[in-house]
Amino acid sequence: MLLSLIIIITLGIISKRITKRIGLPHIIGLIFLGWVIGPFSMDLIVEEINALSEEIRMLALIIILVRAGIGLNISTLKKVGKTATLLSFIPCIFEGLTVTVLAMLLFDLDFAIAGVLGFVLAAVSPAVIVPSMLKLKERGWGMDKGVPVLVLAAASVDDVVAITLLTSFLSMAAQGGSFQLVNLGRIPYEIVVALILGAIVALALNWVLKKIDIKGNDYIGFVFTAAIAIYLLGQVMNIAGLLGIMSFAFVLKEKAGQSDNQKIKDSFASLWYVGEIFLFILIGAQVDISVIADASILGLLLIFGGVLARGLGVMLATIYSDLNIKERLFIVLAFVPKATVQAAVGGMALSMGLAFGEEILAIAVLSIIVTAPLGAWLINTFAPKLLIQQKNTD
Asked: How many helices (H) and strands (E) does the chain have?
């Protein structure tokens, strides 16, 4: 196991340096490296790490979500609030329903199974989007109108919408019944309760740590532990735990002192350097290239048909915003990547024994292979072309 850790970290660092030299987003190199050393290629990652892959990837995701929450500020959130709300729902629903209709036409599926496939593909990837938006924010790209913050806020809720609707279609497919509209009521419930949970934990932690005068590395340890606890509580309460982590970090930032905030930023930036290596290599390791043949050209038509529909949804959701056409086009590109959610839910239909389950998994994997590196490249390449750079952003 230790040898596998050495291989992952060492090759991950080398991969990041190589991709930087040739001008590619390092995410692309890490995902490709994960496939090369993963179980479907050279098989250099021991089974113990593969078995813990989901937990390790989640820890890395928690780190980046804390960084995302710390990076938010009230004034920018107020500026993007209405537009972020529209972007949270409209593009996801456009994409999910478009893929549903296309799946019914191309694969002759019934509405329930097609809907499962539609909303497996509809979720965007926080693993790709969040670090990309944080990098743009730090460099000031699009911050004159808060575009990176807008994408961060919308993407986090987008996944809640997609997974909730997926759950409804899975239930419908399993029971052979009608679509459960009551599940739609869970969307605002999951969002609101997650936000409140994160805020309560942040306020409580801030009060306790100040009372017992905890600082430095101990302070960071408690922050990380609290973030993990919020994710676990989210699973128990069946709410959006990842959104709760961002809420937690945001409220903690507002209540903590400047020195504590800087310590959190610096410490989690250091954690992320290693965390992203594990996150994207282990995502790549889950990719079985052989499923491309199973997914076929029709799978690609579904994926890109959904991406185009999402782009239309973005343009409609931002039509009355103060964003110009270039900024709106950038958001369309920023919503292309898919990875973590598809890796997590792509096999649910198969595990439930539903019809077309293997094909759904194959198309989900294909969406990761195609859109994760493509989306990372699009964000990295077109941000300087479509956004205005603002210096000295918070």
From this structure: 17, 0
